[in-house]
Amino acid sequence: DLAECLQGQGRHVEAEALIKKTLSGLEAAGPEHTAQRMHCMTVLIMSMTAQRKEVELEPYLQELMRWNSDVFGASHQHALLSRCRYAQCLENQGRLDKAEAILRPALQTLRETVGTSNGTTLCAIRSLSDTLISKKQYAEAQMLIHEAVVLLLRQPDQHMGSKDVTCEHAKLAACLMSQGHHKQAHSVMKLLIGSHSAWFDELNAATLTAFYDYADRLGKQHRDVRTAYSWHKLVLGARRTVLGDLHPDTLRSVAGQASVLSV
Q1: 22: closest CA among 45, 3, 47, 46?
Q2: What is this structure's pTM?
Q3: 3-class SS at 195?
Q4: With contact defined as beta carbons under 8 Å apart, do 69 and 102 qualify?
Q5: Within a 10 A sphere around the Cβ of 263, how many other Cβ atoms?
Q6: Angle, alpha carbons 262-210-238 (nearest 5°)
């Protein structure tokens, strides 16, 4: 409970250390505490995901995925959600073919067993669209994004300006921009103006690259320096969060923002 409280306060490093210590104790206590171990592991995965520890995270995801399959069955939504989280980890590492190979059958099974209105199905749809954007398969990604937006807007806590819906619209704009459909992309971008910038941190590297290119084009081709600077600033902040300060894409954003200021 303390670890989850720390996590809720954004103190992920402290939460991670506490959970790992608890996990060690539960493992030493014997197999009768396996269920408690898996609960702790789920909390640990959330803390490590927030810290972008993709490689270190992978074995925990694999163990949780196996346990859920053994306990609930391979077609149960708990097991399928574990697979989706594992696929997200792979996608963040750039292992796109393997991520897609996990997500496609998982999504199909979820559609057949719990339906499209289920939250786990929605998670799989959004994860697969992320992977397809990274693989430059934009047409199929767009169809999934449209489906995700429709499903999100059916939920009582979602609306056109909410973080999840805005994130999907950002992905749609990225797909359109990447295919050269700039007018359509610009129409979607209008939906993003004035929304809270926190949604930017939810985007993957490929989607952020599309927004970088959009900002670059605004500055160089259209001389819209103010708007270009605003988008460069958002992309830079997100890349620092998602990729780290020294990642080549982050450094490229630093240079891109500087180039706009020099215009």
Answers
A1: 3
A2: 0.82
A3: coil
A4: no
A5: 11
A6: 75
